[in-house]
């Protein structure tokens, strides 16, 4: 399967708590819910299109616990059948077993990078990471991410956890697609190309 990292970001790169003030308050974060004012029907259509390409999902522990808490009861949501029905994998060194209410779920423990590489070898289309920024960044650094989809909201949050931390590994990307929703969410799809390239500007040619 192709491993696709999908993240909601603020303009200053914050990935923490896009959906609600109490979604993720770890490390004292109090500015959650910054994506919600910019949602519209066009963005919902884009996200539904992404989900339609999935054959499995991969989560870090914190995102998995939030999804496993909320999605089993959201049966009226148009994406519930996909999220609740498809296989799910949670990468964690501390979680011993999956939530029985959100099956089928498999815990990937121990050597997470090797475990994710093994899951990628399974037949299927896309193995999608939703949220789970720290997991996504570590897999990108390890060269396991095949595609990145970023939905960037027109807001500066100012504080919070970032998908790309200041000490992260430099990575080159190739833009595959971009669009902007009427409410202002900029959607960029990239393919990792290895290490970042550098040069010296010598004027236009």
Description:
The N and C termini lie far apart (41 Å). The chain is α/β, with parallel strands linked by helices. An eight-stranded mixed beta sheet has the order 4-3-2-5-1-6-8-7. 22% of the residues lie in helices and 26% in strands. It has one domain (2-194): 3-Layer(aba) Sandwich (Dihydrofolate Reductase, subunit A).
Task: Offer a few descriptive terms.
alpha/beta; Dihydrofolate Reductase, subunit A; eight-stranded mixed β-sheet; 8 strands
SSE layout:
Elements: E1 2-10, H1 41-51, E2 54-60, H2 61-70, H3 80-85, E3 88-91, E4 105-108, H4 112-120, E5 126-130, H5 133-141, E6 147-153, E7 172-180, E8 186-194
Parallel strand pairs: 1-5, 1-6, 2-3, 2-5, 3-4
Antiparallel strand pairs: 6-8, 7-8
- Secondary-structure class: alpha/beta
Q: Major beta sheet, specifics?
A: 8 strands, mixed
Number of strands: 8
Count of the separate structural domains: 1
CATH topology: Dihydrofolate Reductase, subunit A
Output the radius of gyration: 17 Å
Strand fraction band?
A: 25-35%
CATH architecture classification: 3-Layer(aba) Sandwich
> What fraction, in percent, of the residue positions are helical?
10-25%
- Please state the average pLDDT score: 93
Total of helices: 5
The side-by-side strand order for the widest beta sheet comes to 4-3-2-5-1-6-8-7
What is the H-and-E element order?
A: EHEHHEEHEHEEE
List segments where confidence is low: pLDDT < 50 over at least 5 consecutive residues.
Answer: none
First-last Cα distance? 41 Å
CATH homologous superfamily heading: Dihydrofolate Reductase, subunit A
């Amino acid at each position: 399967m192709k491993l696709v990292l999908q993240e909601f970001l603020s303009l200053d790169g914050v990935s923490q708590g896009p959906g609600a003030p109490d979604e993720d308050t770890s490390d004292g974060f109090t500015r959650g819910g910054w994506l919600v004012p910019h949602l519209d029907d066009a963005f919902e259509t884009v996200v539904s299109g992404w989900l339609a390409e999935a054959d499995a999902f991969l989560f870090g522990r914190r995102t998995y616990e939030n999804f496993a808490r909320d999605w089993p009861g959201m049966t009226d949501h148009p994406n519930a059948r996909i999220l609740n029905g498809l296989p799910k994998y949670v990468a964690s060194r501390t979680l011993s077993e999956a939530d029985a209410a959100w099956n089928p779920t498999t815990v990937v423990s121990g050597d997470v990078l090797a475990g994710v590489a093994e899951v990628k070898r399974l037949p299927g289309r896309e193995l999608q990471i939703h949220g789970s920024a720290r997991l996504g960044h570590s897999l990108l650094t390890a060269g396991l991410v095949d595609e990145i989809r970023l939905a960037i909201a027109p807001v500066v949050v100012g504080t919070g956890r970032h998908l790309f931390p200041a000490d992260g590994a430099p990575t080159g990307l190739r833009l595959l697609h971009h669009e902007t929703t009427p409410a202002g969410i900029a959607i960029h799809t990239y393919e990792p190309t290895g290490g970042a390239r550098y040069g010296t500007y010598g004027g236009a040619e």
